[in-house]
Design goal:
alpha/beta; three-stranded antiparallel beta sheet
């Protein structure tokens, strides 16, 4: 089987990372969580106390940011300047800030360059918002994940509860809708389905059904 690039795009809380991780493990590929990269930048900006509207200040701090991934007993964690920040970047506050900083051209160009370098040897699964349209427009397999806002909010609500937080469902749903709007209306690399992407609506799919479907799509792409 030939080695390929798998680009997975879609709305927030669609399970992109879960699918990407499982497919990468199944194929023996490298997995890159681009959303986590934006969250790491967002965490750095929050800690610095810089307003997202101050693009010039954020541009100046980007060279100070080093993002890496480390394998752990429970999977893969994100490191920010050598610190394991996996737990810190998964909060609603950081997620909201990540959605905002991702609209900045300087941030997107900074991270896209790093992401493209990671895929030069192929054998990679990458998920995000603009992987199939901007980062890897020539990827051999492009998937676009979607589900209703209510279903995605419920998934996120349960995930936050499992982490010991006490979210309000209406707040989570509002956050999902606001992020959808920002992702699809930003000026720099807005979220959109690539013309040759395969849509996977997992609103009514079990995790097992979705994974079986994706594995078949992967096998078909590798044999083309």
């Amino acid at each position: 089987m030939r080695r390929i690039i798998v680009a997975i795009d879609g709305y927030s809380s669609c399970g992109k990372s879960t699918i990407a991780k499982e497919l990468a493990a199944y194929a023996g590929y490298t997995y890159v969580d681009t959303g986590a990269m934006y969250r790491a930048v967002a965490l750095y900006v929050l800690r610095a106390g810089v307003e997202v509207s101050d693009e010039e200040a954020i541009k100046q701090m980007l060279p100070e940011i080093e993002i890496g991934f480390v394998r752990t007993a429970d999977g893969q964690h994100v490191c920010l300047n050598g610190e394991d920040v996996e737990k810190h970047i998964r909060t609603l506050e950081v997620g909201n800030m990540a959605s905002q900083v991702s609209t900045l051209g300087v941030v997107r160009r900074f991270l896209v360059e790093q992401q493209q370098a990671m895929g030069r040897e192929k054998g990679i699964v990458m998920d995000g918002r603009d992987i199939g349209t901007v980062v890897f427009p020539k990827a051999e397999l492009k998937l676009f994940l979607t589900a209703s806002a209510e279903v995605r909010a419920q998934r996120r609500y349960l995930e936050l509860q499992e982490k010991g937080e006490k979210p309000v469902f209406e707040d989570v749903l509002r956050d999902v809708n606001e992020r959808d709007y920002r992702d699809t209306h930003r000026q720099e690399s807005p979220l959109r389905q690539a013309a040759d992407a395969i849509v996977v609506d997992n609103s009514e799919m079990t995790r097992e059904e979705q994974m079986a479907h994706v594995k078949q799509l992967f096998a078909d792409a590798c044999s083309d």
